[in-house]
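Anyone else keep sequences and structure tokens together like this?

Example one:
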Amino acid sequence: MIAERLAELHARTMTVPWTVGDFEELLSGKGVFVVSSSLPKFACESARGAAPLSPIATPEGAQPLIGLAMGSVVLEEAELLTLAVDPDVRRQGIGRACLEAFEAEAARRGAAVLHLEVAETNVPAIALYLSAGWERSGQRKAYYATPDGRVDAVLMTKRLSVG
């Protein structure tokens, strides 16, 4: 149920969305977690794998899933795998809330350094990350395939304060 809802939102937000199978495989991985937001509240909540946690695992009558952040933690490093917000409710703080929830959950799991990659053409996402204290740390040439060709990935890093 969780993978289907995550894939549904991802399909509404990404040029090349992940499938239900992609999410199922990721959710089965060690250290992988999801934070999500649904209407009417924007506060993101954490879920692990297929754990029945409201709001993303609520079957009938569930509020629409409007935001998610998925990441993984290995030792003291975390990677933001994806962040998605429903296009109909963007620019209302949902992406920031999910990013903050991702960072808090990663820290709770022992991460001290966070990493992500984002398409250089995704200017709103880059602005969000920079405003949240992330720093550019590198670039991958022609990393993402898009309908218009390949674009570079911007690598970003954030160190979490300890204590």
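And example two:
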Amino acid sequence: LIPTVNLLGVNLGWLIGGTVIIESVFAVPGLGSLLVSSIFTRDHMVVLGVALTFALATVLINFIVDVVTVALDPRIEL
């Protein structure tokens, strides 16, 4: 179960990064399309905010995966 949880965490990180491309291709309103439109209009504060949001979400997901891994296997320490 531990490799599955770790793979799920990595895939969620890729999913967060892929939202920019998917939302741009399919014209879905969201943070990815907001990021792309802000880059083209040179709105630096929005670009920084969305990038920070994506980065914090990725770090939070990785932390949750690490905590779940420790909970599943008591031999592993944080």
